[in-house]
Inverse folding.
């Protein structure tokens, strides 16, 4: 079982719609979870962190965490063309971040 | 806004040569990291560094690799005897003590010929 899994293929959403991304993780003791955005050829940029079960909202982004199900999600509301990127789910274990492969999001104007 | 910086942005080297990748972490951060991303693959952890010593390393970080904080601002990754498969983007990251968020630099693209 992979440490962090992001299984969905590329996601195309119309401008203004909601993009929904999912991530599962294998290590039950993990306590810190992150979403990074990565534009092509660029470095990961932190957009959300979440540590407790439930929802956390920051602007147009909402992260959701369910530790019992070992599941983290990210919602992007009112998607903009500038949101077109790969979104990386990351789980912290000890000092390291374990990343998923990422979900590519394409926002269609 | 403070940010992590890395030099060079692109390094081309011949197989078997040694390279040093440089990073300047955010000034009040005490934890430093190196990650790499082979083209088309996921970001992989290499090493974490705190209080002038390695705090954790991955199975990738073998004797070919070493890290150093030579002065109060720089953090370096040395790769000895580079191989073709070392070609990747290398990212430096840093975090504050007591905080979990890691902030990444722009990366160094290493090409081994």
């Amino acid at each position: 079982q992979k440490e962090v899994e992001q299984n969905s293929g590329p996601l195309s959403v119309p401008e203004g719609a909601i993009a929904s991304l999912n991530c599962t993780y294998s290590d039950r003791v993990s306590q810190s979870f992150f979403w990074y955005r990565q534009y092509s050829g660029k470095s990961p940029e932190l957009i959300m962190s979440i540590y407790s079960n439930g929802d956390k909202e920051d602007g147009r982004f909402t992260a959701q965490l369910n530790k019992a199900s070992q599941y983290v999600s990210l919602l992007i509301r009112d998607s903009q063309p500038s949101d077109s990127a790969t979104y990386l789910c990351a789980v912290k274990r000890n000092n390291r971040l374990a990343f998923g492969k990422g979900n590519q999001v394409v926002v269609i104007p | 806004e403070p940010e992590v910086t890395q030099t060079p942005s692109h390094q081309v080297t011949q197989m078997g040569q040694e390279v040093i990748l440089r990073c300047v972490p955010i000034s009040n951060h005490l934890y430093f990291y190196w990650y790499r991303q082979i083209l088309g693959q996921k970001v992989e952890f290499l090493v974490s560094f705190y209080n002038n010593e390695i705090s954790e390393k991955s199975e990738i970080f073998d004797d070919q690799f070493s890290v150093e904080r030579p002065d109060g601002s720089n953090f370096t990754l040395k790769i000895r005897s580079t191989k073709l498969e070392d070609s990747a983007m290398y990212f430096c990251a840093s975090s504050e003590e007591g905080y979990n968020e890691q902030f990444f630099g722009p990366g160094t693209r290493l090409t081994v010929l």
Remarks:
- The mean pLDDT of chain A is 95.
- Chain A touches chain B through 22 residues (CB under 8 Å).
